Structures are given as structure tokens and as C-alpha cells.
Amino acid sequence: MLMPKESRNLRKTAKRLGIFLLIVFVFDVFIGFLFFKYTQISSVLCGFIIICITAVLYLLFLLICAKIDKKKKERIEKNNKKDPFTKQ
Predict the structure, then answer these.
(1) Is pLDDT at 67 greater than 60 in this prediction?
(2) 45 to each of 30, 32, 42, 82, how far by Cα in Å?
(3) b/e per residue 30-55 (b: at least 16 CB within 10 A)
(4) Confidence at residue 75, expressed as pLDDT on a 0 to 100 scale
């Protein structure tokens, strides 16, 4: 059984991954179309290039998500330390 926080994190991760896969799928179809239409490379090499591009994009996506989560966590911690009843 998942705890509420774990469930929330799992939904957030699944949502992010779904959006990423949708965008990358469209991008990969476009690149595959360009390779088949305008070049004479084999389908195996085309597939390998698409897999490499997707892997690099996924690593970039993970890096961006990690930075966003880190900044969000820092912002939440910073806001929780402030006392709303004191003047600055």
C-alpha cells in the first residue's frame, strides 16, 4: 500500500513521463520521416540514431526535472521558516 505522499509523487512522475513520451514520440516520428524520405541510410541505423537521440533527450529531461524539484523544495523550505506575523 502506498502512502499518500508516495502516491502523489508517483502520479506526478507518471504525468511528467507521459508528457515527455508524447512530445518525444512526435519528434521521433518526424526525424524518422526525414531520414527515410531524404537519406538512403538503413532502417537499423535510423532506429539506432532515433534511440540515441531519445536517450539524450530523456537524460536532459531528468536533469531539468531534478532541478525543478530541487528549487521547489528550497522555496517551500524557505517559505516555511518565515514567521507571517513579524515585519521585515
Answers:
(1) yes
(2) 16, 11, 5, 56
(3) eeeeebeeeeeeeeeebeeebeeebe
(4) 85
For the record, the C-alpha cell of 27 comes out as 519528434
pLDDT tens digits, one per residue of 49-58: 999 999 999 9
Q: How many residues are recorded in the chain?
A: 88
Gap between the Cα atoms of 76 and 78, Å rounded: 5
Q: Are 46 and 36 in contact (CB under 8 A)?
A: yes
Contact at 8 Å (CB) between 26 and 12? Answer: no
The residue behind cell 508517483 is 10
Planar angle of CA 52, 55, 59, nearest 5 degrees: 140
pTM (2 d.p.): 0.76
d(CA 88, CA 82): 10
Q: What grid cell was written down for 43? A: 532502417
